[in-house]
Please model this.
Amino acid sequence: MKIIIHGGFFSESSTNHETKVAKQNALKQIATDSYAFLKTHSALETVVFAVSLLEDDPLFNAGIGSQIQSDGKIRMSASLMDGTTQKMSGVINIEEVKNPIQVAEVLMGVDDRVLGGSGATNFARRHGFEKFSTEIPQRRAEYEAKLESAGLGTVGCVALDAHGRLAVATSTGGKGFEIPGRVSDSATVAGNYANEFCGVSLTGVGEDIVSNATAAKIVTRVTDGFTLKDAFAKTFDELLPYDGFAGAIAIDCDGNMFHQDSHPSMVFASFDGELFEIFH
Model:
């Protein structure tokens, strides 16, 4: 059993040591708690659990603490993928929901598994998700001052359970000040993908990640026999022509974990029950 999570790029915390340390400590605790959860739950249940904890922490740009778009509203996206069944579900630009990843989890059980905008929000209401404002004062101050100090934040988790099953979940509050209707990579196979061989979660500039189909490429290459390291290397090389901004975490079916970023300033944490690591 193994778990790896990411909290996106540091952005404002890269110049604020206290915030950086707080994020690292939060990731360590969430990774530890999620690993304990994994002991008695499936990989799919665990990635939802872990990402929900990340969404609940205002240090990260997902759920509570999400960025505000150019029209003053918060719209969030999240997706979930089961490596065993190959089912993916997600919400795009959902509003006033505390945990978008949990709405994605409910969608896993219906035929229309990816919903956007008001359709996603209405679905959430019909399934008992109460109206909840995820805005925090910091985000409002950034919006009003036209700042973009935390615009590259996304959270994600990849888990391998005791039965060898892989799952991945990713959630984002957006890049901040974007045009309403903009679609991030987080609820697409470019930013969140898994099969029986590998699971990958991305963070960074959504447009760059979508252009590169990053998560799907890495998983496909591992499926075709590449090592995680080689799959990452080839895929990240393909970001270079347009200076693509991305970072990724992954676990393969053999329990190997890997991460890489194009612009070092990200925070990741992994735990396998014995060895705990923080990457930054």
Summary: The longest strand covers residues 2-9. The two ends are 23 Å apart (CA to CA).
